[in-house]
Design brief:
The chain is α/β, with parallel strands linked by helices and 142 residues long. The protein is built from 4 helices and 4 strands. The longest helix is centred in the last third of the chain and has 17 residues.
């Protein structure tokens, strides 16, 4: 099930301890909600940066970081911070994230409007992909 919240802090949603966000594959988390993830989970950021440097995190990939009380799913939605997100990267990453979440027994993930802010995509297009992909994973709420 998907529940859309127009405003708020994803880190304060009751009953949720796993989160996802779209990011680039160049190792930069300098704008948008990525800065909050970098500041809140500095060890995750260091691992992400290393994966990017070693070219082990590509568009469409997911870097799953277990922080002890939940998971952070970093979705590769942009090649670099200079390029736009692509809907096919988002779809591929969402499928992979939901597969990982199912395996990790994660039942709820909070995420922002991935790809529709700094990524430059239309929210309606992203929302359609979210709805389509999530139908195959009814055990994970978004």
């Amino acid at each position: 099930m998907i529940r859309y919240i127009e405003k708020g802090d994803i880190f304060r949603i009751e009953g949720v301890s796993s989160y996802a966000h779209g990011c680039n594959c160049a190792g930069a988390m300098g704008k948008g909600i990525a800065v909050q993830f970098k500041d809140k989970y500095p060890d995750m950021y260091l691992e992400y940066k290393l994966l990017c440097k070693e070219n082990k995190f590509c568009p469409g990939d997911v870097f799953d970081y277990d922080y002890g009380n939940g998971h952070i799913y970093n979705l590769g939605t942009q090649a670099t911070w200079r390029t736009r997100a692509k809907i096919e990267y988002i779809e591929k990453a969402l499928i992979q994230m939901l597969e990982l979440a199912s395996g990790d027994n994660v039942t709820a993930i909070a995420l922002p409007a991935i790809g529709a802010g700094l990524g430059g995509l239309k929210w309606d297009d992203v929302k359609a992909v979210l709805n389509k992909v999530s139908n195959d994973y009814p055990n994970v709420d978004l």
